[in-house]
Amino acid sequence: MARYIILLGAPGAGKGTQAQIMREKLGLPNISSGELFRENLRNRTELGKLAEGFIKTGKLVPDDITIKMIKDRLSQSDCTKGAILDGFPRTPSQAEELDRMLAQFGSKVEWAIYLSVAENELVDRLSGRRLCKAQGHVYHVLNNPPEQAGICDIDGSELYQREDDRVETVQQRIRVYHQQTQPLIEYYRDKGILKEIDGNRSIEMIAENILKEIER
Ligand code: AMP
Question: Is 42 a catalytic residue?
Fold first, then answer.
């Protein structure tokens, strides 16, 4: 059976970092809705133009646009054995739509991993975060620096700071998370597939913990 695993948590909780590790360990594609939007922004596509204003101001892109983008991505051939979803779903209707989508493939969400992190940690993590231009590999200037400053260890591309990682936008994104995304924790808990993971530890410890929980 295909394995579809979701990563839930506030902005800065470590979803992207863990999704990249899980991709290697589980051999599944890692689908980041934020990274898909950023790729469309960079390429100035119609989708990118539609999403731009929302992303820059720390709001969620409307559900219909986001759902269509994810449907298209999940329909690609590399996702038939499953996927790790980072940043999607983020609203109850996205979660319901994902269930319908996967049911059409004869599948369902296997686990929802909730990375819980102390609120006062989030802003530090986001303001020190750097991404690589080529593939969005995630670093942190203090907690997880690249070997050579400003350069991605994996693909050698340049690192940059996301515009929405500035302090003003970060606060808005955390508010949006509490209002619109937090209810999903209960949604998946009710289904019996929520795994809550303490995200206040080292990247390696968290990764080990996640793998142990989902392979049990
Ligand atoms: P992220 O990289 O996951 O922090 O996402 C960056 C931005 O992309 C978010 O602040 C939203 O504006 C947009 N975005 C990403 N995923 C979603 C989603 N599932 N629903 C709506 N907007 C999203």
Answer: no
Are 139 and 161 in contact by the 8 Å Cβ rule? The answer is no
90 is catalytic: yes
- Which residue out of 38, 73, 125, 129 is catalytically annotated? 129
Ligand 1 atom closest to the CA of 54, numbered from 1 = 12
Going from the Cα of 215 to the center of ligand 1, the distance in angstroms, rounded, reads 28
Kindly report the protein residue whose alpha carbon is nearest to atom 19 of ligand 1.
Answer: 88
Closest C-alpha residue for ligand 1 atom 15: 34
pLDDT tens across the length of the chain (216 residues): 899 999 999 999 999 999 999 999 999 999 999 999 999 999 999 999 999 999 999 999 999 999 999 999 999 999 999 999 999 999 999 999 999 999 999 999 999 999 999 988 999 999 999 999 998 999 999 999 999 999 999 999 999 999 999 988 999 999 999 999 999 999 999 999 999 999 999 999 999 999 999 987
Which of 23, 162, 189, 201 is labelled catalytic?
Answer: 162
- The residue ranges of every structural domain in the chain are 3-118+167-215
CATH class of 3-118+167-215: alpha beta
**Closest by Cα among 142, 149, 162 to 16:** 162
